[in-house]
Amino acid sequence: MSFVIFLANQYPDMFSKACEYGIKAMIYVATQSLKGERVKIGDIVEKVGSPEAFTAKILGDLAKNGLIESLKGPYGGFYIRPDQMESTRIIQIVSVIDGDSIFLGCGLGLSECNAQKPCPMHSKFVKIRSELKNALESTTLLELANGIKSGQTILVR
Amino acid sequence: MSFVIFLANQYPDMFSKACEYGIKAMIYVATQSLKGERVKIGDIVEKVGSPEAFTAKILGDLAKNGLIESLKGPYGGFYIRPDQMESTRIIQIVSVIDGDSIFLGCGLGLSECNAQKPCPMHSKFVKIRSELKNALESTTLLELANGIKSGQTILVR
DNA sequence: TCTATTTTCGACAATTTTATCGGAAATAGA
DNA sequence: TCTATTTCCGATAAAATTGTCGAAAATAGA
Ligand code: FES
Ligand code: FES
């Protein structure tokens, strides 16, 4: 008889929570911006299922990096311009929040990923990592927002 | 003029540190086990570049799950049997330490990855995730140990 | 049996990530 | 100018991961 003892870590996901929240918030704001509407943080977190103050911070960071507009005061909120929506790629959101070690760094944590002196997993990782990078680079915010608008995809479960 | 503000998280790698250390330690122990030698934790962490007590804990967990043998006392240490070395796949190490959310979970953190009601990134992720799973499933510890033995790959930089 | 060695294990500490709070700053409208 | 609204931002707290310490348990050999 044998069974597995479980003691797995809790947050070893593809992206950090901050990054998941950031991507989903951006997508929701994009859908509303397509209708010309600014959205308040309270509305965003309701649709995305994320903590309010934390999400506000993340959107603030994305605003500093020019990926989203914000306006204070009544009738204020977050907004993504049409040109921003078309030009921003998901990889930009990920880079701001999580950095680029997931596409550039060594999968086994060597200080540098180097094909001349590779880690044992290098040849297995290189292709997957570049496909991930390519996927994030090639998909625009507009594309994902359209998926939500048409009801093909969802932001919360 | 425009520049990027950096505030990226610090540990959003493919695997957790614990998992990186675990994989590298297993590979090193495997190379020595090929020579019929048991290795002490002090030797392991020297070759892997990981913190001693932390690495010992991780190896203890892997031992509980039957992926490695340990023996206390003089001439004791860690050892991987030939049958273990051939049968254990990297995915088993990852599953014990990090769980399986990286190959099974939704990339945007929805409570479940569901093709009927997918998140906006689902179609982009499904292929990459399954390739990662496949890569980790198909590579054996023995294969990676041989890479180290022949000097083609390294464990520390 | 005694000693030296080495893993095991619980407690604890440090660091990072996640999350909350409260008030300042900005804005729109009255 | 005053008020209400909303983002911004620093301080702080909570939780998770990473890392350390010390002593118990097991083992080999004298
Ligand atoms: S050296 Fe490790 S992934 Fe390239
Ligand atoms: S539902 Fe998000 S990856 Fe499948």
Structure, explained:
The structure is a homodimer of 157-residue chains. With 157 residues, chain A is mainly alpha-helical. Chain A has one domain (17-149): Winged helix-like DNA-binding domain superfamily/Winged helix DNA-binding domain (Arc Repressor Mutant, subunit A, Orthogonal Bundle). Chain A contains 8 helices and 2 strands. Chain A has helices at 17-34, 41-48, 52-64, 82-87, 90-98, 101-104, 122-138, 141-149, and strands at residues 69-71, 77-79. In chain A, strands 1-2 form a two-stranded antiparallel sheet. In chain A, strand 1 (69-71) and strand 2 (77-79) form a beta hairpin. In chain A, helix 1 (17-34) packs antiparallel against helix 5. The model of chain A has no long low-confidence stretch (mean pLDDT 94). Chains A and B meet through helix 1, helix 5, helix 7 and helix 8 of A and helix 1, helix 5, helix 7 and helix 8 of B. The site of one FE2/S2 (inorganic) cluster has 11 residues of chain B, from helix 7. Chain A binds a DNA duplex (30 and 30 nucleotides) through helix 3.
